[in-house]
Structure formats: C-alpha cells, structure tokens
C-alpha cells in the first residue's frame, strides 16, 4: 500500500523479522514493502500503535521509599538524584559489583551498546546480562564454535524463496513470524515439534512431514538423521574434505545412533528420518533452520550442534541456494548480542576476557583497559544472586520483564524483593516495574531514532514518527542522565552519535559495523554485517569461500544425547514444554494490553491430550493446576488429540498465577547458560 504524505518508514517493534511499517504522526500503522515481509504484517505488527497512547502508559517517573508504599510520581531530577545517591552508597559500602544491570534483546543497537558501556565504565560492574540469554544464547554458542561466527541467518531470507526442502527444527514460524512463511511457499517443509502447530500443518500440506519427538530428545533425532545420511551414502565427501574438520569424532558418536535406536528414544519413526535425509540429499536448494525448540535445553548448544553436523555432512552451509541458520526471536536479538550488554562480551562481538579486545574498546572509550571489569554472571545466575551475600544489591532493568520471563519466576520475584534498590525503565507497568523502587518512563519504538539488526544480520533504521508523551525520555537519555548524575562523562544521548561510537568500537571485530552509517541506511542501502568500511557493500551471505575459523573450515563437533535435567516420575508424570502463540509476544507486557489481541487470547491455557486430561480428572475448558517441583501455574484446559499423551504445552505470555515460568526449570546449559525452558516434569490437577 503506498504511503500517505507524512508517513515515516520504520520497522515493527516486536520480532526479529523486523517487518517494514509506515507510521504516521498519530501512531497509525500501515504495512510497508520490505524484503522480509513483502508488505505483510502479523496482528501484533498491525496493532502496535495501540500502545502509544495506552491509558496505562507510564509518563512520569515513579518512586517509593519503602516497598509497602505505593509508587508515587516524582520529577526526573528527584528520580535521578535518588538513584545516583543509592548507587554511590552501595558501591562505596559493597563495591562496584553490588550494582547489576539487566538489558534486553528488544533494545536498539545504540541502547545495547551504551548500556554495556554504562555498566563497565560508569558503574564499573561486571554484573550485566540480558534477556537474550533466554532465547538465542545456545544458537549463538553453537554457531560460534562450528562456524567461528554467530549470525543467525548467514543469508538473506529471500534466499529461502526458491528452497526445495526446508527442515524447521523447533520453529513455529506460522505463529511467531507469519510473514516469513511467505518465503517458504514453494518448499517441502519438515517441522520438528512435539506439537502439531500451524507450522506443522503447513508442512503436511506442503507434502512434507511433521516429526514429533519426545520433548528433550531432539539431539537424538539429529544423530539418527546424521547416521542415515552417512550410511545411506548421502554425505558430501568433497565438502567434508575441503571445508570441514572433525567429522570422524562426530561420526564416532552418530555411528551408535542408527535410526531404529534413535526412534526408541525420541519416538520419531526411523523411516521418517531416512525419508527426510533423502529429501535433503536429493534437492539442490535445501536448508536446515533451528529455533527455540532446539535451543532452550540444558544441552541446547549440543542440540544445535547436532543439527549443524547434519547440515555439514550434507554440504549445506556456505553453498549457494542452501544453508544452515537459526531464526532469531527478539526484535534486536541479533544486534542485542553483539554490542556489549552480554556478561562476557564487548562491542563488535568481542570477548571481554580477550586482552586485545579490551585494549581496543578501552581505547575508544578513553579508559585504562585494566579498569574494565571481567566477565560477570549470566542472566539466570545474576538473578539468583540478587540480595544474597556477595550478590548484587541493586538492579537496573531496561526493556525486560524478568518477573515473568525468567525461569522459576516465583524465586525470581523473591530475589527482586530482596534487593536494596530495583530500578526499571519501561513504558508500561509490567510485573517487574510494579515491583520496583523507581520506575523511569521511556519512549516507544515510533518515538525514537536508532538501528536494529534483524534475523539476517541486516542493519535497519528505526525512525521517529511522533514525539513521546510529555515527561517521557528515551532510554539513551535515561542512561546519559544517570551517568551525568554519577559525574561520569562520555554518554551521549543522541542516537547517531552513539551509533558512530559503536562503529568505532566494533571496528575489526567479528560483528564489524564500521562502514555502516545512518546516511547509508537512510539512502536505502541494504547493509549486512560485517561491513568494515564506508565503501564496503556489506556481507549478505557468509561462508561462500571460507568459514570464520582461522583455518577457514567449519567444525564438526562430537555431541551425544544427555537426558533432560528433570525427567517425569510418579509424582510429576508429564513433560511440560513452553512456547508462543500468534497474538502475543514475550512476557505479554505489551500485547496483553492491546484489546484486539487480548480479546483473542485473554488467558493462559494448557494443551493436553484428551486421554491425559481425563486421567487427571479434567475436561475441555476447565481450569487446571500445572504443578512442578518449583511451583504451580493455572491454565485453562485445551484438549488436543494430536498432542503426545506424555506432553503438555503452556504459552509463556501470561503473568501472576498463570505464568508458565512458575513451573519451568532454571537448570542451565553448561556453555551458553541458557535455561531449560522447553522441558520440565509436571502433573495436572483440577484447579
Ligand atoms: Fe512482522 Fe514480527 Fe512484527 Fe509480526 S511481530 S509484524 S512478524 S516483525
């Protein structure tokens, strides 16, 4: 649809597809032609403008001296002065690591960058991490160790248009990113998911397959398929020799997982494994894509690695028209993990423990490299340490609702309550903001400038269409204001100035943005990182000639099946898995407040096989208690005859007593420190 005069070209505030939008001066949204969405939006994108003038919009700082008092409006000077005074006192008494910072994968690149700098330079704390730890860290770690770099899709999504076969491992994109399905319309799809999701239905309609493994056994399925690929002669021997290392080690494990043995563990028919491998091998344009279903496990890095091993054996990564990729979830899930809000990273995807990286970034920041703290705790470990001896006593949260989105959320709420100081910057009163001592009201997507990096590593301009309400500041202004109050210089609030500093800090790093400028983006250039110089065209496709390891080769890694951390037993006989629904996003802070979306999905539910429901004394539409070893979530029963009888599903978008994370297990992947959201043991009871 052509724009009306005065509309601003920007992108949806929600997921990593970053669909193109027009937004006018009254906050009305229209779909915009852009390669990822081709003029389409999902219901979330269409209704995003409803939150700009929402009656619950935060428009003034709120404060309270004691948690048993209500939050009351104050001026910005009072709020900044109080926060700075409390932070100074805590740091003096307990040291810099007594203050922690929690960021988000929805923050712009500029915010993620400045927040990381604020933590390391203004606060001097190592205690910073972000909610991307919950959704992309296993894929990122697997990509780094296999390919030497982590860019979710190392090719543009438009490359998928001509795909003949696409395997989606743990991805329900028909609900999470509906416009992305438009790029898969000609492909035979294979969907791997314990649930028969709308994406699985599309797979069946495409002449493909829906494979439904037991939750927590995806890695076995991938091993069985690798075994089939090798034994049935489908591996690409020339590719293995020329472009990879480590096959023999990986094969030593996969050799023990012949498809029939894998079937006994994962529940997927051996014949289906062989069929899918045959389809991949017989096509000339084929892809394997993973998402949260493969990643959110205590062994998520190894599970993603197992899918990469299969893709490498078939010769997919780096070949024209084929590839391996991971589908990043949050709006800036890709850029948000590149520029320093992660506990172990500095801008440009540099590692904070690397002396060369520290020297480079310290040079840009004008500080002594030795003054930069080392790696801090990961998100789950950081939250678990709050208020404990030796743990942080103050937490500053930007753009995240950890009281709902973190695993074992009842424990998280108790840890937030144990803090001396909780400060939350948000634009709506989410559950975490309502638990805070100080709430700072910030601008929304259509009220600010910045950049986002979408799921294909393309840097995009977020543009301001209207002013924020009076009294509201941008996140950058909040960070700059707090730094000024702390007496620290070097924290500009202008987005382009921050971006130019980010470019310098990222220069020479894996995620090199040095050649990307607002001018180039505003001129319409499609720039994917790395883009090391202003005359560099960007890199839409990685790995065409070499992978990012020093020897240019991709790594097979030997990975084997390990049981989920928590298995069903007599008391908790079912496996619970969690995920998203079409009309809600993340913790639901935003979408639960959009009347049109809340009307479609107003409350939590538990999908359960009718026989399993009957055994628990439950029927369709009744309220159930979903009970794990950590807590109980309330959900309305939906009987789904296609669901595995040993499995139940909960959406994670709801708060209070309906929060799915009341039951989830905070056990972590040993490499990525990602929690095991995708499987824990539960029982059902009538509520
Ligand atoms: Fe597009 Fe994602 Fe926004 Fe939906 S939520 S409109 S798929 S960017």
Question: What is this structure, in a nutshell?
Answer:
This protein has 687 residues and is α/β, with parallel strands linked by helices. Helix content is 30%, strand content 17%. The relative contact order is 0.16.
Please provide a written account of the structure.
With 687 residues, the chain is of the alpha/beta class. The chain is 30% helix and 17% strand. The protein has 23 helices and 30 strands. The strands form eight sheets. The protein has a seven-stranded mixed β-sheet with strand order 5-4-18-17-16-6-7. Helix 7 runs parallel beside helix 13 (300-313). The termini are far apart. The mean pLDDT is 96. The site of iron/sulfur cluster has 14 residues, from helix 1.
List the helices and strands and how they pair.
Blueprint: E1 8-11, E2 20-23, E3 29-31, H1 43-46, E4 62-63, E5 72-73, H2 76-94, E6 99-103, H3 109-123, E7 128-130, H4 137-147, E8 165-169, H5 173-176, E9 188-192, H6 198-205, E10 209-211, H7 218-231, H8 237-243, E11 244-245, H9 247-254, H10 259-266, H11 270-282, E12 286-290, H12 292-295, H13 300-313, E13 323-326, E14 345-346, E15 350-351, H14 355-365, H15 379-385, E16 394-398, H16 402-405, H17 409-417, E17 421-426, H18 431-434, E18 438-441, E19 450-453, E20 458-462, H19 475-485, H20 495-506, H21 518-522, E21 527-528, E22 554-555, E23 574-579, H22 595-600, E24 605-608, H23 610-615, E25 623-627, E26 632-639, E27 647-651, E28 665-668, E29 675-676, E30 680-686
Parallel strand pairs: 6-7, 6-16, 8-9, 8-12, 9-10, 11-22, 12-13, 16-17, 17-18, 23-27, 24-26
Antiparallel strand pairs: 1-2, 2-3, 4-5, 4-18, 14-15, 19-20, 20-21, 23-30, 25-26, 25-30, 28-29
This protein binds iron/sulfur cluster.
């Amino acid at each position: 649809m052509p724009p009306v005069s005065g509309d601003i070209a920007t992108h949806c505030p929600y997921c990593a597809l970053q669909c193109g939008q027009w937004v006018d001066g009254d906050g009305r949204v229209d779909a915009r032609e852009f390669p990822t969405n081709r003029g389409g939006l999902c219901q979330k994108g269409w209704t995003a403008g409803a939150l700009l003038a929402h009656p619950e919009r935060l428009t003034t700082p709120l404060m309270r001296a004691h948690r048993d008092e209500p939050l009351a409006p104050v001026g910005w000077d009072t709020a900044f002065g109080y926060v700075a005074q409390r932070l100074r006192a805590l740091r003096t008494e307990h040291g810099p690591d007594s203050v922690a910072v929690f960021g988000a994968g929805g923050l712009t690149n500029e915010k993620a960058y400045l927040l990381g700098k604020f933590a390391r330079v203004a606060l001097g704390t190592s205690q910073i991490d972000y909610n991307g730890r919950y959704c992309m860290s296993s894929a990122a770690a697997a990509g780094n160790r296999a390919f030497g770099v982590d860019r979710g899709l190392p090719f543009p999504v438009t490359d998928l248009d001509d795909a003949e076969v696409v395997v989606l491992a743990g991805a329900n994109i028909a609900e999470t990113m509906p416009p992305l399905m438009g790029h898969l319309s000609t492909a035979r799809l294979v969907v791997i998911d314990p649930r028969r999701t709308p994406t699985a239905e599309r797979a069946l309609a495409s002449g493909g397959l829906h494979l439904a493994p037991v939750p927590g056994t995806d890695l076995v399925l991938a091993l069985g398929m690798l075994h089939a690929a090798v034994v049935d002669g489908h591996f690409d021997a020339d590719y293995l020799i020329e472009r990879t290392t480590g096959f023999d080690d990986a094969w030593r494990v996969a050799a023990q997982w012949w498809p029939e043995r894998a079937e006994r563990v994962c529940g997927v028919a051996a014949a289906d494994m062989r069929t899918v491998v045959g389809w991949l091998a017989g096509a000339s344009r084929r892809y394997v894509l993973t998402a949260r279903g493969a990643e959110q496990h205590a062994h998520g890095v190894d599970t993603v690695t197992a899918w990469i091993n299969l893709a490498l054996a078939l010769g997919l990564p780096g070949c024209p028209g084929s590839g391996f990729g991971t589908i990043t979830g949050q709006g800036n899930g890709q850029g948000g993990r590149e520029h320093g809000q992660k506990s172990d990273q500095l801008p440009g995807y540099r590692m904070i423990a690397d002396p060369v990286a520290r020297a480079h970034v310290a040079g840009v920041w004008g500080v002594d490299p030795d003054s930069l703290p080392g790696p801090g705790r990961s998100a789950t470990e950081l939250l678990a340490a709050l208020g404990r001896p030796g743990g942080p006593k103050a937490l500053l949260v930007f753009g995240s609702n950890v009281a709902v989105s973190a695993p074992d959320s009842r424990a998280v709420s108790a840890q937030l309550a144990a803090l001396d100081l909780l400060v939350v910057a948000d634009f709506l009163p989410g559950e975490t903001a309502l638990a805070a001592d100080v709430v700072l009201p910030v601008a929304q997507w259509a009220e600010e400038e910045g950049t986002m990096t979408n799921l294909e590593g393309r840097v995009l301009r977020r543009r301001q269409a209207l002013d924020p309400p009076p009294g509201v500041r941008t996140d950058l202004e909040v960070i700059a204001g707090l730094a000024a109050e702390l007496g620290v210089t070097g924290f500009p609030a202008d987005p382009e100035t921050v971006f130019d500093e980010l470019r310098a800090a990222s220069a020479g790093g894996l995620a090199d943005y040095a050649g990307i400028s607002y001018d180039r983006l505003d001129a319409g250039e499609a720039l994917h990182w790395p883009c090391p110089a202003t005359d560099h065209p960007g890199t839409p496709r990685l790995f065409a000639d070499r992978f990012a390891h020093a020897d240019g080769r991709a790594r097979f890694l030997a990975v084997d099946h390990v049981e989920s951390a928590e298995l069903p037993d007599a008391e908790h006989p079912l496996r619970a898995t969690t995920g998203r629904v079409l009309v809600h996003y993340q913790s639901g802070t935003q979408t639960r407040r959009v009347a049109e979306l809340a009307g479609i999905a107003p409350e939590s539910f538990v999908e359960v096989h009718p026989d399993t429901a009957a055994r628990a004394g439950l029927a369709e539409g009744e309220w159930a208690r979903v009970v794990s070893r950590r807590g109980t979530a309330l959900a309305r029963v939906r009987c789904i005859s296609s669901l595995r009888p040993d499995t139940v599903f909960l959406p994670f978008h709801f708060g209070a007593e309906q929060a799915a994370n009341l039951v989830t297990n905070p056990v972590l992947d040993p490499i990525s420190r990602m929690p095991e959201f995708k499987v824990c043991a539960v029982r059902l009871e009538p509520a």
